[in-house]
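Quick check before the chapter quiz. The format below is the same one you will see on the exam, so make sure you can read both the input and the output lines.
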Amino acid sequence: MTLKTINVTTLKQWLKNQEAVLVDVREPSEHAAENIEGAVLLPLGQICKSALPDYTGKKLVLHCRKGARGGSACEKLLAEDPTLDIYNLEGGMEAWCHA
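Here is the expected output.
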């Protein structure tokens, strides 16, 4: 099971084309301070397949501050369901802000 990642440029294109659902796995205080428009908050401690927003027909992208928690969340979800089409945003929120 390989963890798939995407970069900010790809994510921006997917969001513009409504091809992806973005999930923020940071804590509520972090999300409140700074977030990517349209991202659904689902903290890492609460992540499970049944808690995910509807992503039918779209790619599922997770993000955190720098990428580590997003990767952990992807691994947790893939352990639950190896068939998920899921991506981690490289560099997380910091990369998004610098782009």
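If your answer matched, good. The helical segments are 8-16, 28-33, 68-80, 92-98.
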